[in-house]
Amino acid sequence: MLKIRNKIFSNKKVYIESYGCQMNFSDSEIVSSILLKEGFDHTKTVENADLILINTCSIREKAEENIRKRLSFFNSLKKKNNNLKIGVLGCMAERLKEKLLHEEKVVDLVAGPDSYRNLPDLIKKTSKGYKSIDTKLSKVETYDDIIPHHFDSNNITGLISIMRGCDNMCSFCVVPFTRGRERSRNPNSIVKEAKGLFEKGFREVTLLGQNVDSYRWSRFSNNKKDLEKLQNDSESISFSNLLEMVALIDPDLRIRFSTSHPKDITDDVLHVIKKYENICNYIHLPAQSGNNRILKLMNRTYTREWYLNKINSIRNIVGDNCGISSDFISGFCSETNKEHKDTLSLMDHIKYDYSYTFSYSEREGTMAERKFSDDIPDNIKQKRLSELIIKQRKHSFYRNKLCVNKTYKVLIEGLSKKSENNFKGRNSENKMIVFPKEKYNIGDYVNVKVLNCNSATLFGKILN
Ligand code: SF4
């Protein structure tokens, strides 16, 4: 529980900027809520801030370079305002710890993902002229009693963290080091938060975790001594149970979730998706590679054949129309051209609706950095990456063309970026559809007939 304090930060304004995955955006909403309770106001104008917090990502070197550029811009603001304080949160804070305070003199405060309850004290310290840091990771923190402040939301679609950390140790990934051990949040607090959002007018929630399929909560969850009891607790709540609990809140509340792991997603989850119309027909199932030797080096703990079986289960249980997307890494340590071609052939086989593609970026401290050599030259990584991108674009277009002349139930999320005369919204399969604005409101569900498409977007009209 938050301690009751005097509102020592009354009249102070905080500006929060978030980078990286949806978990970071969700965490920033928790941070904002903690600071609002302490008297801070939120500002969307960085120049008006007394405190700037930047919630960072460490997944790739480029992500960290961008943060450092942003910090040098904040330094220019600090020169105009001596009292301005700058804090770094999230994965980069956790990864670099004190080093960040030494390397980036502009930074006053460093807080890792499990230290946000301590932010008021850390900020107080900076106001006395000291630098402050807390990067302790927790085995139990889930922030489950904190109702996030949705300061940057469209008030229609919301993010809900259902767990924190990751126990998977994929060899390329820094997340287990920056976000700590996996822990699941109390399902009652998740349902309460989802209900609260629905009552405020939100019509979609995305349940977030690094590996949602390993969500498991039991009354023994937060006691390390009771690990054995946790493993044998027949009354524990699995991810499929949780999905069902959230789906039952109201048929008009749509549910999405991210991210699934191919080794953990179960048929139970797929059956629950099929059973409830308001659980979206869309699964992000990162493959990372289509080659078994590379998957083993990545410590993904499944094979190409296992992965293809999971795709078959999705198509058989949820249906052929289920949207499926993936992540892929090009040029992982020792990847041959033939092994890269296996990834392309996996893509050809599945024809994903969408893929997030990256070239391999070695991260300090990961298993890959310690055990393997980052030996694929940059130009080859980039060449393979562009082949993945071209392939995906072709498949996205193929999948989108299959939607033409079909009608979908679409949640209106806002105005289209390109024209205020058009609405935008997504269908259950997570495809973005743009259509002329009519008498409806943002947050309404409408039936939209798709008339044409490109590889990124469907275009249609509302059927009255
Ligand atoms: S599942 Fe693997 S890639 Fe995803 S966060 Fe965990 S370690 Fe990283």
How would you portray this structure in words?
By secondary structure, the protein is of the alpha/beta class. The chain has four domains: 13-134, Methylthiotransferase, N-terminal domain (Rossmann fold, 3-Layer(aba) Sandwich), CATH 3.40.50; 153-280, Transcription Regulator spoIIAA; 281-402, Transcription Regulator spoIIAA; 407-462, OB fold (Dihydrolipoamide Acetyltransferase, E2P). It contains 15 helices and 21 strands. It has helices at 22-37, 61-80, 90-96, 98-103, 119-127, 175-179, 187-199, 227-232, 239-247, 267-275, 292-297, 304-318, 337-350, 367-371, 378-401, and strands spanning 13-18, 41-42, 51-56, 85-89, 109-111, 132-134, 157-161, 163-164, 183-184, 204-208, 216-217, 237-238, 254-258, 282-284, 323-330, 354-359, 407-415, 422-426, 432-436, 445-453, 458-462. The strands form six sheets. The chain has a six-stranded parallel β-sheet, with helices on both faces. A five-stranded mixed beta barrel has the order 17-18-19-21-20. Strands 7-10-13 form a three-stranded parallel β-sheet. Helix 9 packs parallel to helix 10, helix 10 packs parallel to helix 12 and helix 13 (337-350) packs parallel to helix 15 (378-401). The radius of gyration is 23 Å and the shape is globular. The termini are far apart. The relative contact order is 0.08. It binds iron/sulfur cluster (SF4).
What would a concise description of this structure say?
By secondary structure, the chain is α/β, with parallel strands linked by helices.
Largest sheet: 6 strands, parallel
Which structural category fits the helices and strands? alpha/beta
Number of strands: 21
Average pLDDT figure: 94
Number of domains: 4
Classified by CATH, the class of the largest domain is Alpha Beta
Q: Which small-molecule species are bound to the chains here?
A: iron/sulfur cluster
CA-CA gap between termini: 49 Å
Percent of residues in β-strands: 15-25%
Record the strand order, biggest sheet: 2-1-3-4-5-6
Q: Outline, from the CA principal axes? A: globular
Low-confidence stretches: 1-5
User: Under CATH, the topology of the largest domain is which?
Assistant: Transcription Regulator spoIIAA
Helical content band = 25-40%
| Number of separate helices | 15
CATH architecture of the largest domain: 2-Layer Sandwich
Radius of gyration computed on alpha carbons: 23 Å
